[in-house]
Design goal:
By secondary structure, this protein is α+β, with helices and mostly antiparallel strands. It has 3 helices and 6 strands; from the N terminus they run αβββαβαββ.
Length: about 110
């Protein structure tokens, strides 16, 4: 699993039980405020750059100072449902076939 391999390599740098609450950038770098969910304390990490993997649906709700264009893009992304199918059949030929297919499915209702 990718997450486990990542943790093996840089595990001492990972802060578990933390919720990012703010992402700010300026000419000096990036400032990320996060809440320790065990204690409720808010802490800040500073760095030259940040790889942000927070889904846009969450990032759009956070305090940030991203550019107006990027903010508009974040706020206008609509996620769609997806599904994966697997099958096992003999088809018409009598030969057993197994496979899978991935694709997207349109939700029957949408909320925003």
């Amino acid at each position: 699993m990718i997450a486990q391999a990542f943790a093996r390599e840089v595990g001492d740098l990972i802060r578990y039980n933390s919720k990012v609450v703010s992402l700010q950038q300026d000419e000096n770098g990036v400032h990320v405020a996060y809440e320790d969910t065990r204690t409720g304390d808010t802490l800040t990490a500073e760095a030259d750059w940040c790889v942000c993997t927070v889904p846009f649906s969450i990032l759009g709700q956070m305090d940030h100072n991203l550019s107006p264009g990027l903010t508009a893009a974040i706020n206008n992304v609509y996620y769609r449902g997806s599904a994966k199918w697997a099958w096992n059949s003999s088809g018409g030929s009598g030969k057993k076939t197994t496979g899978s297919m991935a694709g997207s499915a349109t939700p029957t209702c949408r909320s925003r």
